[in-house]
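For reproducibility, we list the full input for the iron/sulfur cluster complex.
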Amino acid sequence: MMNRRDSVGVKVGEIQIGGNAPVIVQSMTNTDTADVEGTVRQVMDLAKAGSELVRITVNNEESAQAIPRIREELDKKGCSAPLIGDFHFNGHKLLDKYPDCAEALAKYRINPGNVGRGSKRDPQFAQMIEFACRYEKPVRIGVNWGSLDQSVLARLLDENARLSEPKPLSDVMREAVITSALESAERAVLLGLPKNRIVLSCKMSGVQELIAVYRALAERCDYALHLGLTEAGMGSKGIVASTAALAVLLQQGIGDTIRISLTPEPGADRTHEVIVAQEILQTMGIRSFTPMVISCPGCGRTTSDYFQKLAQQIQSHLRHKMPEWRKKYSGVEDMHVAVMGCVVNGPGESKNANIGISLPGTGEQPVAPVFEDGVKTVTLKGDHIAEEFQELVERYVISHYGSNPGNLAAAE
Ligand code: SF4
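The corresponding predicted structure, in tokenized form, follows.
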């Protein structure tokens, strides 16, 4: 296992970020926060998919009033995911006017570039920190490239212009992002917020910029770091860009919590960003969440889409079962299931997985050998291979991960 950077642990409700805790997955809702029912539903979906923290925008009075009701509804429904309030421009006013909102949130996100303009910036930032102190909440000081504190940038540009050999503009911009985060954190500490209640982020939309900024940030402080590529984009571009950036940093032990900022396709499920975050961590061997399906890409030897459908069905089934399995079958998240298209690599991959099936390729005998722990246990044939294999996977889970021996009997 790779070495993680040492960071000061921050408790957000019952969840710890940094300080040797596992890398935490978080997400953000896109409902109107004032719509209590819709927001509760989405938070529950995100939490069920594995989001350990959920951020909600608190952008106006209606949303601030909704927060305690959202918390209450979630508690009633047994969802304990801590809620993070995302504040911009008017956070100091909302936290002042709605103490129940301040209390119900487990953490406040403060963007130093959007906390107030000109002479209002410092007092309004101080007010936000005072609320965090009063309600004993942690904060994320979340700098964003797109809303960088212009006063910090102007100061660094002036200093740069006075150098005998001025640095390129891109270097000054990166430094401004880092300086904004570090100076804001320093101010928060001076205002009385302990270091173990501060998480930092410096989100950029370019992969190389993000990597450069976080490497520097990681060297210059020991605050817990929230990683994410901002405005990652849509579809495969958003996933690839986020993975490219985060993988490099995570591999160097940098990052205590991650969020994948995907633009959802219209009507698409918001939980996709949670699954991508988990898959980045799991495929890198950092943390396991759900049994992994190993499937081949298929080729001319698989002229039907039967095996693609089976791989998809098994993957969705495993995800669907995980909330229940997580409670009953410890270690099941490390299981590997192989679904392979033909005899070329099928038996080999199936033998290496915990349980695997090698489907018949075009022109092969219509039988599908199943391997469990490297040994062929059964050969499936006929029209119900998919259902029968799913059942075998269930039985494997019960017999290998069930701590209660009665589980096995119940399955028989
Ligand atoms: S296992 Fe068979 S079907 Fe799958 S990619 Fe390899 S040769 Fe093609």
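The two ends are 38 Å apart (CA to CA). The pocket of iron/sulfur cluster is lined by residues 296-299, 301-302, 340-342, 344-346, 361 (CB under 6 Å). Both points were considered when choosing residues for closer inspection.
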